[in-house]
Structure formats: C-alpha cells, structure tokens
Amino acid sequence: MMAAAAAAVAAAVGRGGFRRCSQLLPCLLLAARCWLCAGSEVEVAGAERFKIEGRAVVPGIKPQDWIHTARVLVEGEEHVGFFKTDGTFTVNDVPSGSYVVEVVSPAYRFEPVRVDITSKGKIRARQVNYLKASEVIRLPYPIQIKSSGPPPYFMKRETWGWTDFLMNPMVMMMVLPLLIILLLPKVVNTNDPEMRREMEQSMNMLNPNHELPDVSEFMTRLFTSKSSKSGSGNKAGKSGAVKRR
Asked: What pTM does this model have?
C-alpha cells in the first residue's frame, strides 16, 4: 500500500501536478497510519499468551451460593474471569508481566494476589505489598484465595461503658482530689508537728488570696479534731482504770 501511494505521488509530480500531489498527501498519511497499526497488531498477535488459574473458598459456604455474583479481575478490568461450579477459575489470553488478581464479590471479602508471568511461561504468586514492592512472600500456585469474611459496609455503633464515664476528664478532676483528701491522712503521720507545719505552709502558698477560705485551717481543724478525740479517749480510759482500783 505504501509503495502504491509513493508511485502515485511520483507520477503526479512527474506530470507537474503539484495540486494533485497536495490532494494525495492526506491519503498517503492515512495509508502510513494503517500500515503502522497493522504491524503493531501482528507483533501483539505473535506474542505468546498464558492463563492464570486458581480457586476461591468461602469457609462454611458452598460455591454455588456465592459464585454467581463474583468475578475475577486481573489488573483492574484488563482481564476478567468467571468461576466454575466448584469455585475454580481460569483467566485466558494473558501476556507475560506482573498482574494483581482479585476476587470481587458483594457478599464476601478476598485478599488480592500478585501473579508474575515470565516470557518463558513461568508463573509465580506472591502477596500484594504496596508499601514494600521489593518484598516477596511467595504463595502456592494455582492461586488459593480464602475469604476473610463479609466486607465492612457499615461502622459499628459505639456502646456506652463504665470506662468511658471514669476516663472522662471532668470526672477525673473531681474524683482525684477527693481521693487525695481521703487517703492523705491515712498515709501521712498527722501527729507530727513538723509535717503539719509543712502542710500548712504549702497550703498558704497555694492560697495567695486571704479573702477566700483557707484550706490549711480546714486541714488543721480536721487533724486536730481527730487527735483531740483520741487523746480524750485515752484520758477517759485511764480515769476509769484509776476508779476501778
């Protein structure tokens, strides 16, 4: 076709028909494009094609119950395969290269598998790792794809628990000071005058505004009332013992 077009152009030029040559130029370009497309199709048709085989399994469910809504996609939708009645599949007419094989189902979720096909027909299956593409974790071939359960279409509603109430910052701000007030007299020896004096000084430093109620006075009254009660109890016990004598 190219030779015929070139001969026609040469004849037109030899006759002095430049106008005819300009009319034949689009035809020549179209013929060149068709020739290039035909050559590329011949090269692709001459490349060897292979097939990808495998099987998908849903634990506890027969293949007949879910295969009618599932498909096998190779590299998106570049190649599409369908399941047989026993859950196996075969994707034909696949050239050499690296492909991601995934099973698409509206009711079950399957992990994708990467399949590498060499020009000599050697096929290798491995896990898909988009973060570390160089990492190779081989899988058995033909492919065995197992379902990991139904896809999470909806998020679970959060339930209320006691931990949510206790870990609330407002509750912690109220409970912790109360625990400190109740447990501090049992941990610290309040009868020691030096310890009491240090506590009063620390309370005074925390309360610079004297118009407000002083916490140190409240603590002192609380501790002195306990000590006075214990002292009076001891004195009453001694006096009773003396009277009995």
From this structure: 0.48
